[in-house]
User: Fold these one by one.
Assistant:
Number 1:
Amino acid sequence: MRIRLLAACLIAPLAAAAGAVAAQTAPPAAPPPAPVARTELHTAEGTDFGTVTAFSGPQGMLFRIEGRNWPAGWHSVHLHTVGKCEGPGFTSAGGHLNHEHASPHGLLNFSGGPDMGDLQNVWAAADGTANAEVYLAHAATEGVAVDLLAGDGVTFMVHAAGDDHVSQPIGGAGPRIACGVFEAPN
Ligand SMILES: [Cu+2]
């Protein structure tokens, strides 16, 4: 017992000192977030559906959605692999980003998902506004780094319905209702 008490007496001040040092060593100031890409969303008929701004982080990529004129309710949003938005069905945008490598679709798919096009659902209010930030994990990781502006580009797609995050091929997301090709931010 005496040894334990002695040990406690020695360790406690050491721990306190270590805490004080840690408190004094603040991490270096991070640069403010700067967008890496931006897109304007439109329906096949040309209706303005708002904007999406992309930010790159140390582990992944964040998309800030500022939507307008969306039908009320849940909507799937995805990254599609070809930077081309041709109506009426926007099939020109191809399938999901990295789908051929990561395979099954679905953030909640325990059988091999998700692919790199899978994102969180967005809720649109009755007035048509849809404001959200959705996050693509691992988008900055070596081997799967996502460049929204490289090659034939990448599209941000809005679907008619929410994504169940499991079923194939696109989680019951329904038709593609608005599309935007990412461009360099102004
Ligand atoms: Cu999609």
Number 2:
Amino acid sequence: MRCRNCGRKGYIHLPYLKEHLCKKCFVRMVERRIRLNLRKSLLSGDEDRVSIVDNNNAATVVCKHYLPKVFGEMYGSKLMVGKRRGYKLFACRSLEGECVSFFRSILLNKPYKRVLNPTMNLPQRELEEYCKIKDLRFERQLLDSDVLAFLRELEDARPGAMFGTIKAVNNLDNRLC
Ligand SMILES: [Zn+2]
């Protein structure tokens, strides 16, 4: 199959788009999605001082690789790693990680805490593929397997259901959770 953007050899199939992308267009799509998340919901202005929770899950590894470039070029600032006083804190996790956290709070009646997540709409598989292409090492994130199984079933029945969840979560008022 060919890449839907440029016609080169397809590298990855994205079931929710029913399309293939080549390596180059796939990397561009991942990075574009992160930049949009920053602009649309995570950053308020160029005065933002940001640090990132440090671990080696694929989402964090992708952000540690890509965000310094964005921050330098777009905001003229540096991204710090690890918690810092007075800094906005990003916690990076995959789309599945985000959805599991949300549904766990509903299904198990746990308090839900939203985090600032630049990779909220990037599936685990895509984050891992990005790491492979860029030769970045990561550790697989362990998620609640029951909730994840529930989500996978939902996603199979209705492709795009997890994206819908994230959109709904973003529209929720924190106080309601
Ligand atoms: Zn392409």
Number 3:
Amino acid sequence: MTDDKQKSADEAGWRDAQASRLERDFKAARAEHRHEHAAAFEAWRTEHNRSQSGKEADMTVKTLNDLFIETLKDIYYVEKKLVKTLPKMADKASSDELKEAIRDHLAETETHVQRLEQVFQMLDQKASAKTCEALEGLIREAEETMEEIDDEQTLDAAIISSAQSVEHYEIARYGTLACWAAEIGNSEVAELLEQTLDEEKAADEKLSTIAEDAVNQRAAA
Ligand SMILES: [Fe+2]
């Protein structure tokens, strides 16, 4: 073999070795990622099952579909609870604009409850709610803050802030659920969830506008 031929054979061998090393590294990284993902899911499942034992439905979450149903139960609890909570918030608000926005969202929330019931039905599942500790915490915090405030404008600001915290929780939940529904291959369910997601986003934007208007009014006063 000539020197040139030997050189190009060496280079080809080196490239092959590099390629197989890269492939090996890639496979190892992928396996590690899968392993981490599985470990995180397993930890969540253990914790979830532990917290649920002796409480409500004794369901074991094994698949994405199970997780999807459990999360539906969580948001179903949220929507039903909000149907009771929003009128109280509207009563406490002073600005007519804010009262109206909350009451409009109450009507939407009633639709959200019905839409979720439709989703449960489409999945051949009984509509059931699972206590959402996150929402309970947000409501508790809101009530504690409101108790301390006498000034009407400040109270309105607190109501908007609390309502937006709840909206953001709902946006996160519906965003995830719509994504999972698509992943599971149920585009009709995904569409329904996206419809609610859009309404939650619009409600959140409306609250931001009311908050900005109030800030401008205070600045002009
Ligand atoms: Fe909602």
Number 4:
Amino acid sequence: MAIDEVGEKVEELAEAVGRLDPIRFVREFRCLSCGYGIVVNREPPQCPMCGTKGSWEPAARLN
Ligand SMILES: [Zn+2]
């Protein structure tokens, strides 16, 4: 499975969880190094695109 596909799956899963449990909202982060966006419900991991760790900025919350 390609990295892009994993990212899409994560977003789909996050959206599904958000619909099931709106209280436990997910957050979107964007990599400061490469601009890659991820959606997680916890602290973001190492960037899957550029490998940078801990350089995320919060983006708009999904609704
Ligand atoms: Zn990155």
